[in-house]
Amino acid sequence: MTTSGYNFAYLDEQTKRMLRRALLKAVAIPGYQVPFGSREMPLPYGWGTGGIQVTAAILGTNDVLKVIDQGSDDTVNAVNIRRFFARTAGVATTNRTPEATVIQTRHRIPETPLAAGQIMVYQVPEPEPLHRLEPREAVTRKLHALADYGFMHVKLYEDIARYGHIATTYDYPVLVNDRYLMAPSPIPKFDNPKLNHSPALQLFGAGREKRVYAVPPYTKVESLDFEDHPFSVQQWDAPCALCGASDSFLDEVVLDDVGGRMFVCSDSEYCSNRQAAGHAGSAVKEAA
Amino acid sequence: MNAPHTPLLPGLPQPAPDSQRIFRQLLDAMAQPGRIHALQVAVTAPAPLAPAASAIALTLCDYETPVWLQSAGPEAWLRFHSGCPLVDDPGTARFALIDQPASMPALAAFAQGEAEYPDRSATLIIQVSAFGEQGLVFAGPGIDGETRLGVAGLPDQFWRDWQQSHGRFPLGVDLVLVAGTRFLCIPRTTTVREG
């Protein structure tokens, strides 16, 4: 059911035009953060207002929208945002990655490979990868202008000096098109390789910080590392307890108060598709 | 020039859905340089603008975007439908509408952005005579390998000028090339060589 009394997809046309101009510049300068006039949305900052504004600016009546929150289609943020656009834009929604034309995401990239023509919209809490090292935006903009990313290499080096390995596991910094340092949003570093040379267009929206940025399709996205400490992704000792997948990102689920736990796919659609196809993990086999 | 009594041509038939459709084509074109899109909206363009150029102008321009017009004609139409200010100095424009590329200013005459804010740069909407299949090789972000394409109606030095502009990255201008109702985009990251 669509809600009356609002413009199509909630935002007014002038706001959409402003966002659309910013998005075109963002695509033209991959990884560079374009400022935009972030609007008050009917939910607080931190709930995906940047992603919602980007989605509102691009969405049309023929789009099919998928929304995920930490990989799941069924958690509160994903359900709310999907319903928001079903009501204000009347668009079709789906859980199935291959059917979606626009996928808004909080902190994951689907396990199912993306296709050409699809658009990923990331919700970004902190767009500036250098923010924790240099809080002044005037200075970080200067550092980006000079492509001076020594700070970040020192930070990664300090990780190695202290822990023996690079301890950053999510929002792992990437260099886009050999030029701009970019925060990939708090996706696990497990997803970083999916950013590189993706056939899909990837848009990033930060509502509170009022910036959008983008990675065009088929663009080099490189995770920062050192020759003797190459970038690597997380690995788990056991496959998913529900579907038996050994190639997906796993969440730890605490089962009781005596140390019981299991690891299951964070991508709920991927996991249920595998289970429907007859795959079973250890927890399912035990129950049977 | 539009005399005061000349009736204005209409703008986009359905401004909200039409501009969304045109924007998505633009976004796809900017994300995949060299891919040709055909305008899906019927627009009656005021001379000397091509239909795609006028539709794109109405999709992106408003009171926040100074526009530079190379040739007189569409001033009243643009002002009425988009509310954009028109400027005489190409260096202060966010969008430039160019219908005679043979006599257009050098790319460096348009806003290139600033080192800290390279997005504060112009987007040039240039009308060419036709698109072909051969003659130019495009490469860069958005292109899987290389794309071959022909563009007729640009002056000889244009692509040399473009490569110089490319050398100023991340500063530079972005292009929308228009041939009638068809268009393609060339962002500043795209390298173009003849071959």
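qc> The first strand of chain A starts at residue 34 and ends at 35.
qc> done
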